[in-house]
What we know:
The longest helix is centred in the last third of the chain and has 23 residues, at 112-134. By secondary structure, the protein is α/β, with parallel strands linked by helices. It starts with a strand and ends in an 8-residue tail after the last helix. The protein has a five-stranded mixed β-sheet with strand order 3-2-1-4-5, with helices on both faces. The chain has one domain (2-134): Nucleotidyltransferase, domain 5. It has helices at 37-49, 69-85, 97-107, 112-134, and strands at 2-5, 9-15, 22-29, 54-59, 88-93. It is built from four helices and five strands. It is 45% helix and 22% strand.
Amino acid sequence: xxxxxxxxxxxxxxxxxxxxxxxxxxxxxxxxxxxxxxxxxxxxxxxxxxxxxxxxxxxxxxxxxxxxxxxxxxxxxxxxxxxxxxxxxxxxxxxxxxxxxxxxxxxxxxxxxxxxxxxxxxxxxxxxxxxxxxxxxxxxxx
Length: 142
């Protein structure tokens, strides 16, 4: 499962059963930035439903590779996820995934007013896909 954690939304993506491709699943929206109980509960529910072993959480590093305020909040969220889901949560560099998501949606002809509702899922998909590409699953079929 891939997550794009934002101040008000969390984009969620899952991989296919073989761990080859990532697909956007949903965007979890919260009314208040600090209220995470329902967000964490929904992520756990999805992780259980899709039998997720590992969660890949996008880490928003600065372009100079330093960690800013959003990265610190993401690390705190990582700890909450571990506690709530009982799963391994890997931080993964997400620099430029939102920019790339916007570009891909634009190229696909998605109208501007509809991009906003899909961009978080797309970013989560890119986070998960880049992680899977860097860590291919060794699947041998007999």
